[in-house]
UniProtKB/TrEMBL annotation:
Belongs to the argininosuccinate synthase family. Type 1 subfamily. Homotetramer. It is an enzyme of class 6 (ligase). It is found in: Cytoplasm. It catalyses: L-citrulline + L-aspartate + ATP = 2-(N(omega)-L-arginino)succinate + AMP + diphosphate + H(+). It comes from Parafannyhessea umbonata. ATP binds at A13, Y14, S15, G16, G17, L18, D19, T20, S21, G122. Pathway: Amino-acid biosynthesis; L-arginine biosynthesis; L-arginine from L-ornithine and carbamoyl phosphate: step 2/3. The keyword Lyase does not apply. This is Argininosuccinate synthase. InterPro entries: Arginosuc_syn_C (IPR048268), Arginosuc_syn_N (IPR048267), Arginosuc_synth (IPR001518), Arginosuc_synth_CS (IPR018223), Arginosuc_synth_type_1_subfam (IPR023434), AS_cat/multimer_dom_body (IPR024074), Rossmann-like_a/b/a_fold (IPR014729). Residues 180-397 form the Arginosuccinate synthase C-terminal domain. Keywords: Amino-acid biosynthesis, Arginine biosynthesis, ATP-binding, Cytoplasm, Ligase, Nucleotide-binding.
């Protein structure tokens, strides 16, 4: 590490992309700070990130690290995401949001190690990641100060930012012809900006790198069998492997079959809607396979209640609240539901689809003898009538005491609205009260 007298230090979350490359130089020029650049490898497309470390040193950073976090990320974070079926707004597998807490934790550790007063990030002033980084950093060490240069400088557009980089001899990978903002890790790729900002534009073919188009995918399905133990993916096609290796292999299989593309309008933390494109081959497949196994191994009440917990968990992660009391409590609940989610799920990839074709588990609550309508039926039908009588008792009581008043008050306007809403089977005009009751029941 190169020592510089009388300068405070800042630890910068460094990726080697446009924003953080400009940041290394900007923090030196504009803030008079010594920069320690930390690049965290959570499964980016470029697996060897030593070039990122050298790039930071070449631009004047007093120290730089390239930290391989892939195994830790897969085992400690992504397993939780699968257990929680983590899909923000039911669609997005949280790939960027999942990596930020682990990176933030290491940044705090590095700040303590290097005696830094500040932590800096390259997030924009209108994005989600500024919230995630700063909320996580302050949850771990509230005494650290955070610098967000993009919120301060006058480089309002990416084009201006690229001009500044060129003027200060900062090498960047982005060009004006393809000004996408890309974030990637083991769980997929996030692509935004450029022509994608017009929500009517079809995503250009060149944004996709993990998946082929459906037209280029094989004409025959590819079958896989994914094994789980206590909710954790542990095998692929009968072969035991680490979470990291499983994700890497499944990304290739799913991507080769055109599976995992997402084009959505999502609600950002700060209150605006954003058009986002994602490639998430393995993450979508693992979550959907896990949900299929849960449907077999969890009881009715737990399965239905967990769906709301999963949704809340995903929202907390998206909002940057990994280090929060509620998230910790939800983790405990989710972990307790996973103890019997063990078994295998068979599925087929075919031209952009992932279809579950079978599932099995020693802890299955699905019993063929109870479900069958054929030979071997174990269900006692004689008990149904009594159960239905008790199940419907509250409704029966309401109907006797209050129901007829509401049923008979159906107005002509309401009848007309009902007819409009059911144009395929219009309700005929009828003069009797009895017929009106029939309308309501229909």
């Amino acid at each position: 590490m190169v020592e510089t007298a009388n300068k405070e230090r800042v630890v910068l979350a460094y990726s080697g992309g446009l924003d953080t490359s400009v940041m290394v130089k900007w923090l030196q020029v504009e803030k008079n700070l010594d920069v320690v650049a930390i690049c965290c490898n959570v499964g980016q497309e470029s697996q060897d990130l030593n070039w990122v470390k050298q790039k930071a040193l070449d631009m004047g950073a007093i120290a730089a690290e390239s930290v391989d976090m892939r195994n830790e990320y897969a085992e400690q974070v992504l397993t939780k995401a699968v257990a929680a079926n983590g899909l923000y707004e039911g669609t997005y597998p949280l790939l960027s949001a999942l990596s930020r807490p682990m990176i933030s934790a290491y940044m705090v550790e590095a700040a303590h190690q290097y005696g830094a007063t500040y932590i800096a990030h390259g997030c924009t002033g209108k994005g989600n990641d500024q919230v995630r980084f700063e909320t996580s950093i302050h949850a771990i060490d509230p005494s650290l100060n955070v610098i967000a240069p993009v919120r301060e400088w006058d480089l309002l557009t990416r084009e201006q930012e690229m001009e500044w980089a060129a003027a200060h001899d900062v090498p960047v990978p982005t060009t004006a012809a393809k000004p996408y903002s890309i974030d990637d890790n083991l769980f997929g790729r996030a692509i935004e900006c450029g022509v994608l900002e017009n929500a009517w534009n079809e995503p250009p073919a060149d944004i996709w790198t993990m998946t082929v188009s459906p037209e280029e995918a094989p004409d025959t399905p590819t079958e896989v069998v994914i094994g789980f133990e206590a909710g954790v993916p542990v095998s692929l096609d009968g072969k035991k492997m680490s979470m990291l290796d499983l994700i890497v292999k499944l990304n290739k299989i799913a991507g080769a079959n055109a599976y995992g593309r997402i084009d959505m309008i999502e609600d950002r933390v700060i209150g605006i809607k954003s058009r986002e494109c994602y490639e998430c081959p393995a993450s979508l497949a693992l979550i959907n396979a896990h949900k299929a196994l849960e449907s077999m191994c969890l009881d009715h009440d737990t399965l239905h209640y967990k769906a709301s917990v999963d949704q809340k968990w995903a929202t907390l992660i998206y909002d940057g609240l990994w280090f929060s009391p509620l998230k910790n409590s939800l983790d405990a609940f989710i972990a307790s539901t996973q103890q019997y989610v063990t078994g295998e799920v068979r599925a087929k990839f075919y031209k952009g689809t992932f279809v579950v074709t079978g599932r099995k588990s020693d802890y299955s609550l699905y019993q063929e003898g109870l479900a069958t309508y054929g030979d071997g039926d174990l269900f006692d039908r004689s008990k149904s009538a009594g159960w239905i009588s008790l199940h419907s008792l509250p409704t029966q009581t309401w109907s006797k005491q209050q129901g007829p008043k509401h049923v008979q008050s159906l107005s002509e306007h309401e009848v007309k609205q009902f007819q409009i809403g059911n144009t395929a089977t219009p309700v005929p005009q009828v003069p009797t009260e009895k017929a009106k009751v029939h309308v309501v029941c229909a």
